[in-house]
């Protein structure tokens, strides 16, 4: 099976991409599409990762890299050769995705592969082609992808003349999960378990055959979890071929690129894209866990929409989620101010909202937002909610907020129907139960209709 494509015909302008030396020899001997002469510069260059200083390493026999291990460069474990990827990330902060891709492929040769999800990260494959270097692509087939995604995989293989290296979940594990909990357990108890079986463990296996991987993560994809993605980093979660924490390097060439620019690039280069994009899908994952978003909605609102915005990582990039040292910390370092600050918005205490819950007959209807000040979706609706409060003040409707993260989260989940932030509740004048606003349209007019129809 061909593991890579050689595309040396593409010329790259600019001094940083000039080709010289052995890589330009068209008669070079090829193994699995990699020219030995192209890779010889890799073996001459001594590099190592911090973790490679570990005492012993178990080689993985993964199919993914069996061929490439034939030409794995000698790794020398000298202190002075340890690559400082933090420094490198800083150096590359202003570099273009093409420069970053070129650097990644040049450094890791056959031991690096592009992770392709079947969405707009096809841009990575196009950048790899443009470098003129051989490259490998792998993907996780979770068994729950959309038909359109499989079509894209096929189109990409044909367009680039490559074979994508698919990794599948363990059949026994999937069987146990589905037999025990059904096909859609993630709607009941969260996506983590299913993602662990269908994505994370297969990914772990695939990465154990590599020394580096390339992802399509961007800072603007998820303000809660991806805002600090570096261009390159020692992978904080997964192990690579040589084993041990730090034995894998993760490259994010699109970290600083905005979604709109990726799309401009795809259109300009006439690259095949997932047909779901034309139906309003932006971020695309498994079929049951992905839905289209409306213009103006954040792309991550189309993924695991029944869960907290902050936790929207499937485990593949778990290192992006910051550890919390207390339950109210959340993304606290980035948060200075509370939100929904207005004379027309009452800040409810736990006792206040408990009273609202108890009252069967209220003097006036109440509209309450359950929020967390760090939540980007709450921040995005702040202006509309404050404007709405002003308009409702003269109509005898009380507007309030209740901070429902940290210590209050469990209570809010149990008693206040909190699913994800923000959750908006209307406590009508006479109905005992609060009514949850069911839509993600949080503009003034939509919220006003909701209040007027149900108050
Ligand atoms: Fe399962 Fe959904 Fe995760 Fe896919 S995205 S692995 S279907 S929970």
Number of separate strands = 13
The stretches of 5 or more residues where confidence is low (pLDDT under 50) are 1-80, 323-336
Quickly name the level 1 CATH class of the largest domain. Alpha Beta
**What are the distinct ligands in this entry?**
iron/sulfur cluster
Backbone CA Rg: 25 Å
Examine the coordinates and then state which fold CATH places here, giving the name of the CATH topology of the largest domain.
Rossmann fold
Spatial sequence of strands, sheet with the most strands? 5-4-3-6-8-7
Distance between the termini: 65 Å
Residue-averaged pLDDT: 77
What general form does the structure show?
elongated
Number of domains: 2
Helix content: 25-40%
Please state the structural category.
Answer: alpha/beta
CATH superfamily membership of the largest domain: HUPs
Q: How is the biggest beta sheet arranged?
A: 6 strands, mixed
């Amino acid at each position: 099976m061909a593991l890579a494509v050689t595309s040396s015909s593409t010329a790259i302008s600019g001094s940083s991409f000039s080709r010289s030396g052995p890589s330009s020899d068209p008669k070079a001997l090829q193994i699995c599409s990699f020219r030995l002469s192209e890779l010889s510069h890799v073996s001459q260059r001594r590099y190592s990762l911090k973790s490679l200083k570990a005492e012993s390493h178990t080689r993985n026999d993964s199919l993914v890299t069996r061929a490439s291990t034939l030409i794995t460069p000698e790794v020398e474990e000298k202190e002075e050769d340890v690559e400082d990827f933090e420094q490198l990330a800083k150096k590359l902060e202003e570099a273009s995705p093409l420069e970053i891709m070129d650097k990644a492929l040049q450094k890791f040769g056959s031991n690096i592969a592009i992770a392709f999800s079947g969405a707009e990260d096809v841009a990575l494959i196009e950048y790899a082609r443009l470098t003129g270097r051989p490259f490998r692509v792998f993907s996780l087939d979770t068994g729950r992808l959309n038909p359109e995604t499989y079509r894209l995989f096929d189109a990409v293989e044909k367009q680039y003349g490559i074979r994508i290296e698919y990794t599948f979940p363990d059949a026994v594990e999937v069987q146990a999960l589905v037999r025990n909990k059904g096909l859609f357990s993630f709607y009941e108890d969260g996506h983590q378990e299913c993602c662990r079986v269908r994505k994370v463990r297969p990914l772990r296996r695939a990465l154990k055959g590599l020394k580096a991987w390339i992802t399509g993560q961007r800072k603007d994809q998820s303000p809660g979890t991806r805002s600090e993605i570096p261009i390159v980093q020692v992978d904080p979660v997964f192990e690579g071929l040589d084993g041990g924490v730090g034995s894998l390097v993760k490259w994010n060439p699109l970290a600083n690129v905005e979604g709109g620019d990726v799309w401009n690039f795809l259109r300009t280069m006439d690259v095949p894209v997932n047909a779901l994009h034309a139906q309003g899908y932006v971020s695309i994952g498994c079929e049951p866990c992905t839905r289209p978003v409306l213009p103006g909605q954040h792309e991550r609102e189309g993924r695991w929409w029944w869960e907290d915005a902050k936790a929207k990582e499937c485990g593949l990039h778990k290192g992006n989620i910051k550890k919390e040292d207390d339950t109210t910390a959340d993304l606290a370092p980035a948060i200075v101010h509370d939100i929904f600050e207005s004379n027309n918005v009452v800040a409810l205490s736990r006792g206040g909202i408990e009273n609202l819950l108890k009252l069967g007959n209220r003097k006036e209807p109440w509209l309450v937002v359950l929020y967390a000040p760090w939540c980007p979706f709450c921040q995005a609706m702040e202006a509309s909610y404050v404007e709405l409060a002003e308009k409702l003040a003269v109509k005898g409707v009380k507007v309030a907020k209740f901070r429902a993260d940290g210590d209050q989260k469990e209570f809010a989940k149990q008693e206040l129907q909190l699913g994800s932030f923000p959750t908006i509740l209307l406590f009508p004048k006479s109905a005992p139960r609060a009514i949850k606003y069911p839509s993600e349209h949080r503009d003034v007019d939509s919220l006003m209709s909701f209040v007027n129809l149900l108050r």
